[in-house]
Amino acid sequence: MIPLRDVNPTRITPFVTWALIAACTWVFVQEWLAGPALDAMIDRHALIPARMLGLARKLGPLHPEVFAPLLSSQFLHAGLGHFAGNMWFLWIFGDNVEERLGHVGFLAFYLAGGVFAGLAHAFSDAGSVVPTLGASGAIAAVMGAYIVLHPRARVESLVILGFAITTLSVPAFVYLGIWAGMQLLLGLISDASGGGVAWWAHAGGFAFGAGGMVVLGRRGRRR
Questions:
Q1: What are the pLDDT digits (tens) for 82-134?
Q2: Cβ(201)–Cβ(136) below 8 Å
Q3: Do 79 and 34 touch, CB atoms closer than 8 A?
């Protein structure tokens, strides 16, 4: 199922959601323009678990060389489909969470979710030297928060079953629950067979978002 929109209007202008989409777009354009320098750009700013954990042991976990990739990697993407899919999910689910947390609170929550997701991936594959990048973990945290805040909000989705294409409106807890379950299942399969997608970053980000929103309280703030 591909989400088309949520039936859950807000009363704010989601400036931070828009700004995050704009920032990711700007970085993606820089990637596209980088040409032969792209590999060096990815190597410098992406999260590489083995390197990050090795530096953490040597320099300490809060050293800038250790911590910076957990933030910078959130704004890089591996291709147009990766970028477009992430931005679409952020566009659909971000505004409602921003409404509840306030602009500054939402930005902090988003970035913290991305950091937690990156750590979940790093510890799940500590020896990996493959660069990890993308906003998926942070956006998974937004989705986790959304399922706690608005479990019954309707998500209108495009459903493709072979040659049959239709639309379906389902509660958010169904759509996001299926999504989260798939990340967990694919993470377990990936552990057994290997794979190139950071499924545990998705699952970890979602868990951070849902758990964090429970701790903060469903009511949150409006601004």
A1: 999 999 999 999 999 999 999 999 999 999 999 999 999 999 888 899 999 99
A2: yes
A3: no
Chain centre to alpha carbon of residue 121: 12
Strands 2-7 and 164-171: unpaired
Enter the DSSP assignment of 11.
S
End-to-end Cα separation, the chain, in angstroms: 32
pTM: 0.92
- Confidence at 191, pLDDT banded by 50, 70, 90: low
Break the chain into its structural domains and give their ranges: 2-216
> What homologous superfamily is domain 2-216 in, according to CATH?
Rhomboid-like (1.20.1540.10)
What is the Rg, in whole angstroms, of the alpha carbon atoms belonging to the chain? 17
CA 207 to CA 128: how far, in whole Å?
23
Q: How far apart are CA 91 and CA 78, in angstroms?
A: 19
Distance CA 87, CA 93 (A): 10
CA distance 203 to 22: 25
